[in-house]
Amino acid sequence: MDRRLMYKMRGRPKSQLQNLPPINHRRHLRLRKHHFNSENIISTQECHFDSEDIMEGLGVAASLLTIIELSAKVATLCAQYAKDVASARDDIQRLQNQVSQLEFVLRRAKCLAEGPRGKLLVVSQWLTSTIVECVGDLRKLEDKLSPKPARQAMRRLGLRALKWPFMSQEVNQLLSSLERYEKAVLLGLQVDQTAMIVDIHEGVRNLSIQATEDASISRKPHYMLPFTPDPDFIHRSTLWDWIRDQYTQSARRMALVGMGGFGKSQLAIQFAHQVHSDSPDTSIFWVHGNSKETFEESYRALADVLALPRRHEPKVNVLALVRDWLQSSDVSAWFMVVDNADDVTVFFAKDDHAHEPLASYLPKTAKGKILITSRSLDAAEKLTGSERTILRIPIMEEEQALHLLRKKLDQEADEATARSLVCALEHIPLAVNQAAAYINRRSPLVTPKSYLADFRRSEKRRDGLLRSDGGDLGRPDDASNPIVLTWQVTFEQIRREKPRAANLLSLMSCFQAQNIPENLLHGYEDVASEEEVGSKGSGKSPDTYTDTDANTDEVDTQENFENDIDVLRGYSLITPTAPGLYEMHSLVQFCTRSWISEFGDRRRWARLFIQVTAEHFPSGEFETWKECQRLLPHVEAVVASKPKLEGVAN
């Protein structure tokens, strides 16, 4: 509308309006016509704003904000007109309601666009043309409804300045356009939300499929046994029947206890293969129990084999994850071997991180069985909870040892030589296996007969033969050691845990292997070598003073002695044969002396042996001959060695 038309309003003189400021047309919008019709609202051809100025660099949320602000302004202008123009109040109210509704829809759309999933509004990102048209029409509306400077001046002078600029038909067209924009935005959002719902559904479906796949992997039987069956395995019927009976009965845990090299692990390996053969649906798991680190590594490998969810999350307790899975109600039957669980402090020391002992991660369920192998009776009792489910593994019977030697040897051995050799090796499976490997590797220079001769020649030569390691693929990697080193691991463990018992073992190694009298086993608690005086606690020597509950001034009590004997019996190092008498395997004695010679002071134990024997040796009168005969074999062994000892009378 031309501003000169305003001069004629109310018949006011022209001179009163000469000083009115010129109309300030909006910089971004010029209208071709001064009247406002439906074509002007719908078409944007004559709008001189660039849509890229609005949309470029702006997302959906920013573009919607522009429309919201314009809608609010138009709604406010409509409210102003509704007060002053009564004749068009219905049309004004309809337009105001539609603009307010559009504003409400756009505000909700803006909230979605600014939300965490705003980038997923793919369809809404392509509403550029609709948004541009909507912005253009709203700006036209705003410009048409905004009071011009002339009108503002007329209102200040008390003149009636507002006149509704639209006919009813034009209002209907305006409403149709605004409804079209509203529906376009709603439709875009609806399509986007439907796509998002489909994506979410697909994601949930994928998770369900993955969970199903993981469950399928974890529920199927697994065979986690790192050792193949030993083709030279010697069936020991008594031991085998006991393990089979325990497995088929109600006991959930059982243990094989014995010295290293007695065949515990081989029995466990062979039985695990048998379980798999008899029951292919039963999972088999092998866990290394010799340290906290190997136990945890076995459980991590088990979690990977089972493909347990969350196992790779940094804060997840994998030990608890495996235990809980094995205890779940829908898991299939399983059989687990915990091998070399020798150190009780590994399983029952408090874990700094999980605040639970390692033993608590062994599952307790009717679906599974656990077989434990250990050198320590104490560890086995704590892990199984009952001595009734513990089997002590003895040495082989002579025929079994002979059969093992013949299987392992690559050459024939005559009957007498073969029997003499296995007897010299005391029917110990590891010793027999080690001797056969040595003979095979040096054949034909070494024969069973020449090996036996060397073995008997001297302690030095015997020590060299027993330290030879031929390797054994059927044994766990960390247990594939010669018998001397295998047993020294046990000796060192006793020295660390029960040093007083280690002293007793050192003293008993000086006796003849059979019929060691209990009344001569005293004075060992506070024995110190000359080199250790003033340097107690150096940690190098196995010759220690006392336990934590006993010092150098403590007397040798019967209770202490019984406790020390119990420790040695728990490790299968000694055996009571009659009241007051004990025996040791001669190879155990020999390896103990070798250990003392290498790391301690063998002379001081020989000195103590002579002292206690001299104190208790009878006078030699007729009535003491029986006691003399009992002690004589022990004395002869020391006299034959002719030790050069200071401070001992001839």
TrEMBL record:
Residue ranges of coiled coil: 78-112
GO terms assigned for molecular function: ADP binding
Region (Disordered): 528-551
Keyword Coiled coil applies: yes
Record bears the keyword Coiled coil: yes
InterPro entries: NB-ARC, P-loop_NTPase
Pfam families per UniProt: NB-ARC
Keywords: Coiled coil
All copies of domain NB-ARC, residue ranges: 250-411
Name of protein: NB-ARC domain-containing protein
Origin species: Verticillium longisporum
